Each structure stands twice: as C-alpha cells, then as structure tokens.
Amino acid sequence: MKANEPVAELEEIPEAECLEILGQHSLGRIAIVVDGQPQIFPVNYAMSGRIIAFRTAAGSKLSYAPRSKVSFEIDKYDSGVGWSVMVQGVAVDATEAFDDVSWAARGAAPRPLAPGAKPHWVAIEARKITGRRFRVGA
Amino acid sequence: MKANEPVAELEEIPEAECLEILGQHSLGRIAIVVDGQPQIFPVNYAMSGRIIAFRTAAGSKLSYAPRSKVSFEIDKYDSGVGWSVMVQGVAVDATEAFDDVSWAARGAAPRPLAPGAKPHWVAIEARKITGRRFRVGA
Fold this sequence. Notes:
Oligomer: homodimer
Structural class of chain A: alpha+beta
CATH superfamily of chain A: Electron Transport, Fmn-binding Protein, Chain A
Shape of chain A: globular
Low-confidence stretches of chain A: 1-7
CATH topology of chain A: Pnp Oxidase, Chain A
Distance between the termini of chain A: 14 Å
Number of domains of chain A: 1
CATH architecture of chain A: Roll
Number of helices of chain A: 3
Largest interface: A-B, 33 and 33 residues
C-alpha cells in the first residue's frame, strides 16, 4: 500500500447485529426478478423478528415477489464509515393469509412515505442475513 | 383523502433527468441474480454517457454480472422529497475488452471507497432508465 492511500478496514457484521441495524432503519430496497430481469424498488419497511414487512399497491412488487426468492438491502456511507446489510429470503403475500409469517408481518407497522393506497402486505422471511462494514481513514 | 393525511404528489422522472441525477451521485446498488436468487450490492460508480462503470474484485459481482441482466439503483429521501432512479441493462466485463462500451467504462473514473484491490471493471449498458419522485407535504 502506498503511503498516501487511505487506511481502510473491512469487516463482516454478525447476524445479530445486522438484525439490530435493520430494526433501526425504515427505508430499504427489495430486489425481485421480473421475467429474468432483476429490478430494485425502495420500500419503507418494519421488522418483526426476522421478518421484513412492507405495504404496497398492486404492481410489480405484488405480482412478482410472493413465493419468489427476493433480496432486501440497506446501506449507508457517512463520516468515513460505510456499511450494508443484505437479507435473502422468500417473499409472501401477507395481506390476508393466516400463517405465522403473515400474522407477524401484519403486526409490524411499516409507514409508507410514498403516496397512494397500499392495501397489500408483503413479508420477507429472512433465510440468510449478511452485512459488511468498512472504515476509510486519513 | 382525510384532512389530516399528508398531501403527497408522485411523478415520473424523465429519462434525461434520470441521467443527470445519476451523474450527480457516486454510490448506488447493483442487483444481480445468483443461481435464481437476486442479490444487491452497493457500489461506487461513475457514468460515461448511458454507461455505468464500477470497479470490483473477483467475486459474485464479477462472476455473475457479465453477460447477464442486471439492475442498478440510486435513491434518496430528504426534507420531504423521496426519489429513486433505476437502470435496467446488461453487464459487461470491461476490464480488457475493446468494444465501445468497455472503452467508455474505462474512461469513467469510479472511486471505490471500500478497501481492497478492485482490478476489474464492470460496465452496465443502460437499456431502460426510469425514475420517480414524490413529495410529502404538511
């Protein structure tokens, strides 16, 4: 490493801490696959244990997420520290279903900031939660 | 709408403005599909026309993005205005190739903040660029 390069450090974030970080934020992004094309949509979410819940209108998220593999991500870069947390799992249409995941999702309280009625609930049951963090020093 | 609900307004962002916004930022996220599972990774990027360029080490992004459909997204929520821009396209390993896209990508100057050598260049040739913006009023 050259002397004038930033001193940097990279670390994995343990799963328990990833869950804690997820609980401290409310804006993330879901990636879904629509006819072979991954797409990314920002959503306001809330956690219920390991379940990520958000509300949506009819549209791509509701049509393609349920029963499919999806990914959810939050990240931030601030004051020399960058981090990201990614949740991989399967989405569920939790609007009316009586399974445990749907109940838990409806018990969370996501607050959509985007306008428009969002009468449907989508839950993501986390199967794999990973995170990383790095520091860029002087 | 009830009287105490926030006044909100939603609009599509025209493609030309989406490109302008993309040029004003440097941190976004790429979604790639790994064995049927979409994954989201934050990347520092730079634009060259309609091409998004970023650098990476060997790993998931380099193994799965090139020649595949990918999505790239930036978003922000600040002071009552939220927006997001999504680019859909196909990724190219631009590290050594001599095609126009690879040349253009290597002419851009993404500045990775995360530590570690990132000797590979990946380009995303935008096929579809969409954006939306909303305001939440008092």
